[in-house]
Amino acid sequence: MARKIIELVNVSKDYDGTEALKNINLYIRENEFVTLLGPSGCGKTTTLRIIGGFESPTSGEVLFEGVNINSLPPYKRKVNTVFQKYALFTHMNVFENVAFGLKIKKLDKKVIKEKVENALNMVNLSGFEKRSVDSLSGGQQQRVAIARAIVNEPQVLLLDEPLGALDLKLRKEMQIELKNMQKRLGITFIYVTHDQEEALTMSDTIVVMRDGTIQQIGTPEDIYNEPKNAFVADFIGESNIIDGIMIKDYLVRFADHEFECVDKGFDEGEAVDVVVRPEDVKIVKEGEGMLRGSVISVTFKGVHYEMIVESNGYKWMVHSTMMEPAGSRVGLYIKPYDIQIMKKVAI
Asked: Less CB within 10 Å around the terminal CB: N or C of the chain?
């Protein structure tokens, strides 16, 4: 297993009495692609800025390879940052932008040329050296910003919503390109976004944050399929979240019906949150369903239909490649392992 390169130990950050981070603990491994994910104001950018040295924690420690770097300024840390606003120098061409940091270090011109050419090759911009940055597309400008960061050979690259200014098609292309780039470079990426699809597409590990706290850490598959609470389930993808009562181990009641499940360890009669993903609700003939209801709306989503089915006052979101028209009477079937039971947490 890869070694830990960065650790945050009991880190808190206070802004004039407002807690932006609340005693978080997190470690990041070498060569890992980690995404800090959450809504605006959750603390993800503050976490990134503390790692980069642009902010100091109010309390707690930031460790780099086991050494406390709380007081180390950004330029002395083995990290580089790519911001959402790329901050490229418009009066310089591509080569000059990428070479800027190396010139500050007063490296030999031959060394600078070699390093810049290697960095541009890494981001597929060989031959663009003399181009004005104003003449580049948004995706090309983003790659210049990444080249400028990696030319300094950081061990860790911090990326603060770098795709935010791009159109949807280019964002999707750059998501794949960034992941491939991280593999080629063999360095640690720490990425901040509020876009769930972006996080699921690129990450080795996702850190879901809310109100300055970490809600869950796991692989994209774990976060999506085994959310720790209703907030995570609701934030990562779409979910049916329903109030339930745990009757006993492996048996839960919700939507006026008892369902077998695979969860245990709850108190008998305990109020719980029940999460069922829309793709896990199967539409069957009315008489074959655990629940029965009427289709009240149908929306074509390209790869599937999204249907809303009303059953005993509950509205179920269902994703299926098979469509039942609005007004149809249907049954709903849910397998035990598609039912996720979790402790009650206010959303």
From this structure: N
